[in-house]
Amino acid sequence: MWTRIFGGIAAVLIPTVLAAQTHPIIFDTDFILPPGDDGLALLLALQSPEIEILGVTTVAGNESMERATTDALWVLEHTGRTEIPVYRGADMPWVHEKSEFAERRYGKWFSNEPPAPPPGGFAEKHAESEGAVEFIVSTVMARPGEVTIVAIGPLTNIATAIRQDAAFAGSVRELVIMGGAVALLPDGAGNMTPNAEFNFWVDPEAARVTLRSGIPILLSPLNVSRKTSLTKDWYEKMIEVETPITKLLETTMGPRFAREPERVFLMYDQVAVGSLIDPTLVTTEELYVDVDANHGISYGTSVGGREIWPGAEGAKKMRVQHDIDWPRFMEMFVERMQAPAAAPNSRQD
Ligand code: BDR
Ligand code: CA
């Protein structure tokens, strides 16, 4: 009898425990194909049973929003994950205008060029007709306190969602952001201007609104990205096993490493996803972080402090990553890339 009762309890509890380990996420991205970081971050999320991707939302950043959209559709189609919907988001930052510096330095967020076809041509899968912000707001509001957002591009979509619905910020479970650089901690220089990181610099006004929104934030800034390095040796290790995922890696990364065998890529967005899968991989410190949206020499710079300083009243505390167990992260990353491709809808069964 006790076996029957405990068996019954276990039958009820086990699915609950397993479900509790899964993070339902919205994947908000200025997508680029591998070896680009957003592409590898999406593959990591797709291959991780700890994560259930409810939808991919695109934003202008590394490339135009249209290019981000077509490339994300291509990856989902080539990994057999066409059940995951893709939503077009903002095609320009709120305020920041294209400049000669932006054109010369890095990124194509301002580009009007039609997207170039990915290898082998465009995906047959199409983006949804609903917009990214509508999807983000309705998905979060339908499950208050349950949905995590992983935002690895400029924060335009997220800040627009915050502005659109006053109850939205209080309903997000957690927001994992790749963005910013914190001078208070080691390796805190910018990568776009001397102190500003790319994602925050593209849309500083949106970054400021998002960081001040009160959503619980886990920030993955350049400080932690700079502890990573993706080399040709790591790529070759990943493709030792033949699967649909490693074939996709060969198609997208192979030509790049053939051209530039010595190239070392930082893993920005992959760390944000990896730290959601296994929080013990990263070291964090709680800091107040704010963003300078004044149109001066520090436009788009993030500033972190252990206590509030003049001008930062209204800044919120968040967990800021600054170190990573790199060998263990790469062990996990390679293992996920080599695993058989996850089945469509497997987590909804
Ligand atoms: C961030 O900017 C983009 O180039 C990358 O995809 C990453 O999200 C790094 O500064
Ligand atoms: Ca990105």
Structure in words:
The structure is a single chain. This protein has 349 residues and is α/β, with parallel strands linked by helices. The protein has a single domain, classed as Ribonucleoside hydrolase-like (Inosine-uridine Nucleoside N-ribohydrolase, Chain A), CATH 3.90.245.10. The chain contains 13 helices and nine strands. The protein has a nine-stranded mixed beta sheet, sandwiched between helices. Strand 2, helix 3 and strand 3 form a beta-alpha-beta unit. Helix 2 runs parallel beside helix 12, helix 5 (132-142) crosses helix 6 (156-164) and helix 6 packs across helix 8 (204-211). The longest helix is centred in the first third of the chain and has 20 residues, at 2-21. The protein is globular, with a radius of gyration of 20 Å. The model is unreliable at 1-20 (pLDDT under 50). Residues 30, 37-38, 61-62, 152-153, 178, 191, 197-199, 268-269 line the site of beta-D-ribofuranose.
Apparent shape: globular
Q: Terminal Cα separation, in Å?
A: 30 Å
- What is the number of domains? 1
Looking at how many chains there are and whether they match, the oligomeric state comes to single chain
CATH fold descriptor = Inosine-uridine Nucleoside N-ribohydrolase, Chain A
Bound molecule kinds, no repeats: beta-D-ribofuranose, calcium ion
Strand fraction: 15-25%
Mind describing the biggest β-sheet?
9 strands, mixed
CATH architecture: Alpha-Beta Complex
Mean pLDDT: 93
Low-pLDDT runs of 5+ residues are: 1-20
Rg, Å, rounded: 20 Å
The structure class reads: alpha/beta
By DSSP, the count of extended strands is 9
* Widest sheet: strand ordering: 3-2-1-4-5-6-9-7-8
The DSSP helix count reads 13
Relevant CATH superfamily: Ribonucleoside hydrolase-like
What is the C-level CATH assignment? Alpha Beta
